[in-house]
Write a structure and sequence with these properties.
Order of helices and strands of chain B: EHEEEHEEEHHHHHH
Number of strands of chain A: 12
Number of domains of chain B: 2
Low-confidence stretches of chain B: none
Number of strands of chain B: 7
Low-confidence stretches of chain A: 36-43
Strand order of the largest sheet of chain B: 3-2-4-5-6
Helix content of chain B: 25-40%
Number of helices of chain B: 8
Shape of chain A: flat
Mean pLDDT of chain B: 91
Largest sheet of chain B: 5 strands, mixed
Distance between the termini of chain B: 54 Å
Radius of gyration of chain B: 20 Å
Number of helices of chain A: 12
Oligomer: heterodimer
């Protein structure tokens, strides 16, 4: 596939073309809360979320140099959506399917970890039953990811085998690059990765001579990217490899270490809600007896209600058992079934957890204890 | 001596010594305090049951969690008697839990920390600006003999202007303001789980026969959930602002809670969590209660 380069100042022209092609554009913006008027100018938290950019005038709101608080999974798998509509008539109950409302979309600014998350979700949603809601939206969306140049303290994508600039899951990857290593990044290497990405680039550049001029030959940057990628990887503070944790967790189900590591969990669902790969949902009916909708809403295995049975029994009766389920699912069960871990190392749960529960450090500590134990056993032999 | 400077390593050592004594003498079974977390400036709630482990406890200006939430959790409750590290604001939560018969006063040994404001991601939270409990009250023991100068009360509460803004709005505008806020709610229930005063075994949001609040994240259920939680906390919330800190969507729970606390102060001359003898006004009655609102 082709590589281009695009000057950072021409990004807006590209977006304008996307909009004028009647494509829905989704990108990270700073979502306004009702701003605090307070006298002491205490800072309110800024929230960067993926939202639709309805018109040219809104392009200036796109935030490129920050990380979003929520993942982009809600574009394909919204926090709440109707799956059927029912009407109770005298002649009987009429059930109507819901159209997933999949529009041709360009999703800009997902990070490489988010993009890999889409491929993890796709494996699940096309496994024993093809979920039309997820798959149709994914089919109609071109994912343009943005490579990371300054990972956060909480990032650990290399631990799960990814990189700040990996391409899997993206249709097109924009990587900010500079002229040489010391300058500020002022251009993008545009790597076209899939036929879907190629189709978008072709359809947009193909009809516009202005864009042909700004999307120039990019092969010359590919080598520089590899060096830059290694440099950024070097900057990452969290590098423990997660590969062998799957094997270790097999023996940790009844281990008290998992309990003590997760003892402080309060049982809210923030981690699942911000996660790019958590996909459990709850089915509820909303409406009246005469008419309503069956809804599919995000759920979380951290909630006490998640496994509570109709009869009142709860097999996961303590919070640490719910936490254990989250880790086991991500790092053991999912990997056994679908080859990869259900964690992309984005670190959103690490940042959002009110009591700073940290999946990376849990894995780190489990591995350390396992290695210590093994050393001891070997010595005794 | 009155001071604004705190030597945290001294305080930390005193917590460790005291915890060791309490555990060794079997006065308590568990110490709930702060320990080093995996990330800088983010200590974690830490539980010590063995006197040999007290050196895992730490204390610094980043110890912002209100640990009293743990006392009513299923894992910790059976471990009473507990010792718990509290700042002045957190101690108010303990008073609230005792007054509402959730814990027994004799079961909890409160280790009170003098505090000149915490730092949350480098910022001073609004609750610390006009703090009146920098030197904790109603605790079993105040660590160290230092007294924090708490005379620096600025005239206006940091949320005063926001309150004025709400007061100037028409009812419709105010409704719209809160609707905008609650629309963002993703129903993760972090506000409820971190709240020391949300101790119900089954929350009204979890009841399904009949269902009181729609669990679908959409404006109808979101408004009901946030409004009902606010009502349940009137006169009980101690404004520790942990819900506001935990909310991943930045909903202005700080403003909501402060507004209601001011209402209670003006109507009943009551500030929650200050007195072991006083019940929250909306959970009790008094023959002298103002009745002129009944028309």
């Amino acid at each position: 596939m082709k590589n281009y380069q695009l000057s950072a100042k021409d990004l807006a022209a590209f977006f304008e073309k996307v909009l004028s092609n009647n494509l829905r554009l989704i990108a990270p913006i700073k979502v306004k809360q009702n701003e605090s008027q307070n006298v002491t100018k205490l800072k309110n938290k800024a929230h960067i979320l993926f939202r639709e950019i309805p018109s040219k005038d809104d392009l200036k709101n796109i935030v490129i140099d920050a990380y979003t608080d929520m993942s982009a999974k809600e574009i394909f798998f919204p926090r709440s959506e109707p799956v059927i509509e029912y009407t109770n008539k005298k002649s009987g109950v009429v059930i109507k399917d819901i159209d997933p409302q999949a529009k041709e979309t360009v999703l800009f600014g997902a990070r490489p970890c988010d993009a890999f998350g889409f491929s993890l979700l796709e494996r699940l949603f096309s496994w024993d039953y093809d979920d039309p809601f997820f798959l149709k939206r994914r089919e109609k969306t071109t994912v343009i990811s943005l490579g990371c140049t300054s990972p956060l303290e909480s990032c650990f994508c290399t631990s799960v085998g990814l990189s700040p600039m990996n391409t899997e899951g993206s249709d097109i990857l924009f990587t900010p690059m500079s002229n040489n290593n010391n300058d500020k990044e002022d251009r993008y290497l545009v790597e076209v990765i899939t036929p879907r990405g190629e189709k978008l680039i072709e359809s947009i550049i193909g009809i516009s001579s202005d864009l042909k001029n700004i999307f120039t030959e990019g092969n010359s940057l590919v080598q520089a990217k590899a060096a830059f990628e290694n440099k950024v990887k070097e900057q990452m503070k969290r590098k423990e490899d997660f590969k062998d944790i799957t094997e270790i967790l097999k023996y940790k189900f009844d281990d008290s270490q998992l309990e003590s590591e997760t003892y402080r969990c309060l049982g809210c669902g923030v981690c699942s809600m911000v996660c790019p790969t958590c996909h459990c949902f709850d089915i509820v009916d909303e409406g009246e007896a005469s008419h309503g909708y069956r809804m599919k809403n995000w759920d979380s295995c951290s909630f006490a209600l998640f496994t509570k049975h109709g009869g009142g029994h709860n097999p996961r009766d303590m919070q640490f058992k719910r936490c254990r389920q989250r880790y086991m699912h991500k790092l053991h069960y999912y990997r056994e079934k679908f080859a990869d871990a259900l964690c992309v190392g984005c670190g959103r749960c690490v940042k959002a957890c009110p009591v700073n529960l940290d999946i990376y450090s849990v894995v780190y500590n489990l591995k350390k204890a396992y290695a210590n134990n093994k050393n001891k056993e070997d010595k005794e032999k | 001596m009155t001071t604004t400077n705190i030597n945290y390593s001294d305080l930390q050592q005193e917590i460790r010594d005291l915890s060791k004594d309490l555990l060794e003498s079997k006065k308590v079974n568990i110490v709930i305090g702060y320990g080093a977390g995996p990330l800088n400036e983010k200590p974690i709630p830490t539980f010590i049951t063995n006197a040999a482990d007290v050196d895992r406890l730490l204390y610094n200006e980043h110890c912002y969690h209100n640990l009293s939430v743990y006392l009513t959790k299923a894992e910790i409750r059976p471990k009473a008697p507990w010792a718990i590290v509290v700042k002045g604001c957190d101690a108010r939560s303990i008073v609230g839990l005792v007054v509402e018969n959730q814990i027994k006063r004799e079961d909890v040994f409160t280790i009170g920390m003098p505090c000149n404001g915490v730092k949350i991601e480098g910022n001073l939270p609004s609750k610390c600006v006009n703090c009146t409990v920098k030197n904790p009250a109603n605790v079993s023991k105040v660590v160290s003999s230092i007294k924090i100068d708490s005379s620096a009360i600025i005239e206006q509460h940091p949320l005063h202007q926001d309150m004025e803004m709400l007061n100037k709005m028409s009812a419709e505008e105010r409704f719209q303001f809160w609707k905008n806020e609650f629309d963002r709610c993703i129903r993760c229930y972090a506000c409820r789980q971190i709240c020391p005063h949300c101790f119900c075994n089954t929350c009204i949001a979890e009841k399904s026969t009949p269902q009181w609040i729609s669990t679908t994240p959409g404006s109808r259920g979101n408004f009901a959930w946030n409004a009902i939680r606010a009502f349940h906390l009137v006169g009980r919330c101690v404004e520790c602002m942990e819900c506001s800190r935990s909310c991943p969507m930045g909903i202005r729970l700080d403003l909501l809670n402060h507004y209601l606390a001011e209402e209670v102060k003006n109507s009943y001359n009551f500030i929650s969590g200050m007195d072991f003898e006083q019940k929250p006004p909306l959970t009790t009655y008094n023959l002298k209660d103002n009745q002129d609102f009944i028309k």
